[in-house]
Design a protein that fits this description.
Helix 3 packs across helix 5 and helix 15 packs parallel to helix 18. The protein is 31% helix and 17% strand. A 7-stranded mixed β-barrel has the order 22-25-26-27-30-29-28. The chain has a 6-stranded mixed beta sheet with strand order 6-5-2-3-4-21, sandwiched between helices. The protein has a 5-stranded parallel beta sheet with strand order 16-15-14-17-18, covered by helices on one side. The protein is α/β, with parallel strands linked by helices and 758 residues long. It binds FE3-S4 cluster. FE3-S4 cluster binds next to helix 6. It comes from Fluviispira sanaruensis.
Length: 758
C-alpha cells in the first residue's frame, strides 16, 4: 500500500470531531461537501489553522489544508520548477507525479511508450530526480493516467486533495473533495502553507431510480452538462445524493465527477457507500474501508439535508435514472447534449458528417474495469454475429493495473478481435497527443473522453468530436454511421446481414482481483538532500525560472496597448495550445511562442494575426507581444465570457506575464484561470458592464489604476481612442487582501520565497 495508514487514522479521527464542532457552530444539518471543507481548516498533522466560522458561500475566501497533491507530467514541470525556487527542502503533504500526458499515440502501446521514453528522457529524468529529492512519489510513463492512479491508490472518502489537472475531481467517485488547480497552488500546499479558495456554492443533484438498458453513469453527466451548460457549475461544488447514487459503481461515480469539470464545477462528489468500500477492498485498501465504515454516518449529507435539499443547496437538479437515455454531446462543446433517440435527426439537420472515422474508448474518464467489461459484452455479441468495427477503433486503458487485469481476464483479446488497437496507458488522443494518419478533412469521431473543444483530439479543426459513454462508442463503432440508433435498430454485419445488439452487462470489479502494477511506482528518498537536480542551460525543454519583477504601480500601467480582443470562446487551449506544444511545458520562454495563437481576433476574424500598433503591420500574437515587451510597452488582452475555461494549465497565465502583459479584461472568467493569473502577478478584471467590451477598438491606448487596488473596489480603465475621444470603463475584480499581496510582490511565489528565507 502506497498510503500511510497511521496518517489516515489521524485524518479520520480529526474528521469526526471537526464535523461535530462545525455542526454545533452552524446550528444546522450539514451537506457532505461542507463536512469535508469544514474538516480541512487545520493541517492533518496538527498546527494552527483557520478560525472556524460560518463561511459565506460564493463570498468568503477560506484557507484550507488539503491532504494531498497530485501532478501530471505536463503541469508538474512548471509546478516543480516553482517549488524548487521556493527554497523548501521537502513537501509538507503526500504528493505524487504521474507521467501520462507526454506519450503520443501513434502505432501501439509498446512502440509509443518506447518513443516517449526516448523523446522525453530529459523531462522524465528531471521529474524523477525532483521527486526523489523533495519526497514526492513518482509514477513512471506507462503506469497510467493521473486520475485513475489516484483513484486506485490515494483517493479516500472524506479527504481533500488538489491536483494540477482540471479532471482531478475524478476522485469524487471515492467521496473526496478533489480540486483541479494550477501549479502555483500546488506549490502552496506542498510548501505547507494554506491553500485559499472562495467558499463554493453547492449544487445538489438528486439521483432517483436506477440505470436501464444502454444507459450508463456517463450519461448522467452528459445529461447534466446539457442542463447546466459549460458555465453552470462555476464557483460551485456538485454534490450527488438520493437513492440512485448507491446503484452506481465507484468508478462510474468517478466518471461523473471527472466530467463535472466540463460544467465548470469546482469539483463533484458522491457520499460514501458500500460500492466505494468494495472498490477500496479490491484495490488493497481494506483498512481504509474499515476506517471509513467507522464514521460512515459522517461521510454523507445529514438526513435532514436529503429531506429538504432546497433548504441546504443553492440549486437542486433531479435526474431520474429509470428514464435516462444514452446521450451524445457535441460537436465542439461538451454541453450540446442530444439523447440517442433524437441524435440521427440532429446529425442530419446540422449536416454533421454521418460516417464515423474513428471511435475511441478510454482516457481518465472512462477506462475502468467496468467500462471495459461492459463494452466487451457488446463486442462478444457482435463477433458471434459476424460484425466488427467499421472505423478506426482505439482503446487507451487508464492504468497498467486495469490493462493487465483486462488482459488476464480476456477482454482485451475480444476487443482486439473486433478491430481495436490498444494504445499506451496514457492521455494520448484525449489531449491531442494523437499522431493521426489521414482524416484531415471534415470528419466525425466519437470518444468516451470528457472534452471535445475544436481540434482537441487530433489537432484538426474540421474534426467533429462527439462525447459519449464507452457503451455508446462501441455501438457506433459497429454501425460506423451516426444516424443508426443501434439501441433500437438493427445494424449490418460484415456479410451485409441485419443483426440486433443487446444492452451491455458487466462486472464493476474483477472477481479475481486486480493485477498489481509492480514496476510503475518509485518511492522517494527518505533523505533527498544528496539528490542533485540539474537543468541544462542549452535545453529547449526545461528552463530554470527567474522570479517576475514586482510592478511599479505608478508607471507600469499607462500607455498600454491592446494585444488582442478575443472573440467568442477562448479556452486555455486557445491561450496556450496543447498537442505539439506540450513538449515545451518546462520551458517558459519557448512555450510562450504559442501565446493566444488559437484565439480569434475580433477585428479580422482570424487566429494568430493581430495589428502591431507601433509598426502598423499585422503579425503573430506572440511576436507582437515580444515586440511590445522589447519596446517597454505593456499590453492588455480583452475577451468575452468564461475566458480561460478548460484545463488548469497555468502556462496560460505565465505566458502573458512573461511576455509583458499587465491585465486580462473580460466579460467573465473560468475559476482556475482567474486564480492562476492572480498568482502570476497579472490583473484579471471583468467589465462591470459587459457591453463595454464593444467600446474597445484596435488602436486604443489604455491606462489602469492598480495603485487603488482594494477588495471590492472597482478599477477604472481609461481608454484613449485614436480619434482623440476617450472612455472610462469600470472594471470589477475578485482580489482579496492576500491576493493583492501577490500582485504587489510580482507573484505569489515571490511571497513564498521571501518568507522561506526568513
Ligand atoms: Fe489525460 Fe484527458 Fe484525463 S488529457 S488527464 S486523459 S482529460
Amino acid at each position: 500500500m502506497v498510503q500511510d495508514l497511521e496518517m489516515m487514522k489521524k485524518v479520520y479521527s480529526n474528521f469526526k470531531s471537526n464535523v461535530d464542532s462545525a455542526r454545533k457552530l452552524l446550528g444546522r444539518p450539514m451537506t457532505y461537501t461542507e463536512k469535508i471543507l469544514y474538516s480541512h481548516l487545520k493541517p492533518a498533522n496538527g498546527g494552527q489553522g483557520t478560525e472556524l466560522k460560518n463561511f459565506g458561500r460564493g463570498k468568503d475566501y477560506v484557507d484550507f489544508f488539503p491532504d494531498r497533491v497530485a501532478m501530471q507530467d505536463a503541469t508538474a514541470q512548471m509546478a516543480l520548477l516553482q517549488f524548487m525556487s521556493a527554497g523548501i527542502p521537502k513537501v509538507a503533504v503526500p504528493s505524487t507525479v504521474h507521467c501520462d500526458h507526454l506519450i503520443q499515440a501513434e502505432i501501439n502501446a509498446e512502440t509509443d511508450l518506447a518513443t516517449a521514453n526516448r523523446d522525453n528522457a530529459e523531462v522524465y529524468e528531471f521529474l524523477a530526480n525532483v521527486s526523489r529529492k523533495y519526497g514526492i512519489g513518482f509514477w513512471k510513463p506507462g503506469a497510467g493516467i493521473i486520475h485513475q492512479v489516484v483513484l486506485e491508490n490515494y483517493a479516500f472518502p472524506g479527504g481533500m486533495m488538489i491536483g494540477t489537472d482540471s479532471h482531478t475531481p475524478n476522485a469524487g467517485g471515492l467521496g473526496m473533495v478533489a480540486i483541479g488547480v494550477g501549479g502555483a497552488d500546488a506549490v502552496d500546499v506542498m510548501a505547507g502553507i494554506p491553500w485559499e479558495l472562495k467558499f463554493p456554492k453547492l449544487i445538489g443533484v438528486k439521483l432517483t431510480g436506477s440505470l436501464k438498458g444502454w444507459a450508463s453513469a456517463k450519461d448522467i453527466i452528459l445529461k447534466l452538462a446539457g442542463i447546466l451548460t459549460v458555465k453552470g457549475g462555476t464557483g460551485a461544488i456538485v454534490e450527488y445524493f438520493g437513492s440512485g447514487t448507491a446503484s452506481l459503481s465507484c468508478t462510474g461515480k468517478g466518471t461523473i465527477c471527472n466530467m463535472g469539470a466540463e460544467i465548470g464545477a469546482t469539483t463533484s462528489l458522491f457520499p460514501y457507500d458500500s460500492r466505494m468500500a468494495d472498490y477500496l477492498k479490491k484495490t488493497d485498501r481494506a483498512e481504509i474501508a474499515k476506517l471509513a465504515d467507522e464514521v460512515a454516518d459522517y461521510l454523507k449529507a445529514d438526513v435532514d439535508v436529503e429531506k429538504n435539499p432546497e433548504k441546504f443547496y443553492d440549486q437542486v437538479v433531479t435526474i431520474d435514472l429509470d428514464t435516462l437515455e444514452p446521450h451524445i454531446n457535441g460537436p465542439f462543446t461538451p454541453d450540446l447534449a442530444t439523447p440517442i433517440s433524437e441524435f440521427a435527426k440532429a446529425v442530419k439537420q446540422n449536416g454533421w458528417p454521418e460516417k464515423l472515422s474513428a471511435a475511441l474508448i478510454g482516457s481518465c474518464t472512462n477506462s475502468s474495469y467496468e467500462d471495459i467489461d461492459r463494452v466487451t459484452t457488446v463486442a462478444k455479441q457482435a463477433l458471434s454475429q459476424g460484425a466488427k468495427a467499421k472505423c478506426e477503433f482505439l482503446i487507451t486503458p487508464g492504468s497498467e493495473q486495469v490493462r493487465a487485469t483486462i488482459e488476464r481476464d480476456g477482454q482485451l483479446g475480444v476487443l482486439s478481435q473486433m478491430g481495436a488497437n490498444v494504445m499506451a496507458n496514457a492521455c494520448g488522443p484525449c489531449i491531442g497527443q494523437w499522431k493521426r494518419h489521414g482524416a484531415l478533412e471534415k470528419n466525425s469521431i466519437i470518444t468516451s473522453f470528457n472534452r471535445n473543444f475544436t481540434a482537441r483530439n487530433d489537432g484538426n479543426p474540421k474534426t467533429h468530436a462527439f462525447v459519449a459513454s464507452p457503451e455508446t462508442v462501441i455501438g457506433f463503432a459497429l454501425t460506423g454511421d451516426l444516424t443508426v440508433d443501434f439501441t433500437k435498430e438493427p445494424i449490418t454485419n460484415d456479410k451485409g446481414e441485419k443483426i440486433m445488439l443487446q444492452p451491455p452487462k458487466g462486472l464493476d470489479l474483477p472477481d479475481k482481483g486486480f493485477v498489481k502494477d509492480e514496476h510503475g511506482y518509485v518511492e522517494p528518498e527518505k533523505d533527498g538532500s544528496k539528490v542533485s537536480v540539474s537543468i541544462n542551460p542549452q535545453s529547449d525543454r526545461l528552463q530554470a525560472l527567474n522570479p517576475f519583477i514586482a510592478p511599479n504601480v505608478n508607471s507600469d500601467f499607462s500607455g498600454l496597448r491592446l494585444l488582442i480582443k478575443a472573440k467568442g470562446k477562448c479556452t486555455t487551449d486557445h491561450i496556450s495550445m496543447a498537442g505539439s506544444w506540450l513538449k515545451f511545458r518546462g520551458h517558459l520562454d519557448n512555450i510562450s511562442n504559442n501565446l493566444l495563437i488559437g484565439a480569434i481576433n475580433s477585428f479580422n476574424g482570424e487566429a494568430n494575426k493581430v495589428k502591431n500598433q507601433v509598426s502598423g503591420t499585422h503579425g503573430a500574437v506572440p511576436a507582437t507581444a515580444r515586440d511590445y515587451k522589447a519596446k517597454g510597452i505593456g499590453w492588455i488582452v480583452v475577451g468575452e465570457e468564461n475566458y480561460g475555461e478548460g484545463s488548469s494549465r497555468e502556462h496560460a497565465a505565465l505566458e502573458p506575464r512573461h511576455l509583458g502583459g499587465k491585465a486580462i479584461i473580460v466579460k467573465s472568467f473560468a475559476r482556475i484561470h482567474e486564480t492562476n493569473l492572480k498568482k502570476q502577478g497579472m490583473l484579471p478584471l471583468t467589465f462591470a458592464t459587459p457591453a463595454d467590451y464593444d467600446k474597445i477598438r484596435e488602436d486604443d491606448t489604455f491606462a489602469l489604476n492598480p495603485k487603488d487596488l482594494a477588495p471590492g473596489k472597482q478599477l477604472t480603465l481609461t481608454v484613449k481612442h485614436a480619434d482623440g475621444k476617450s472612455d472610462e470603463i469600470m472594471l470589477n475584480h475578485t482580489f482579496n487582501e492576500q491576493q493583492i499581496g501577490w500582485f504587489k510582490a510580482g507573484s505569489a511565489l515571490n511571497l513564498i520565497a521571501s518568507s522561506s528565507k526568513k
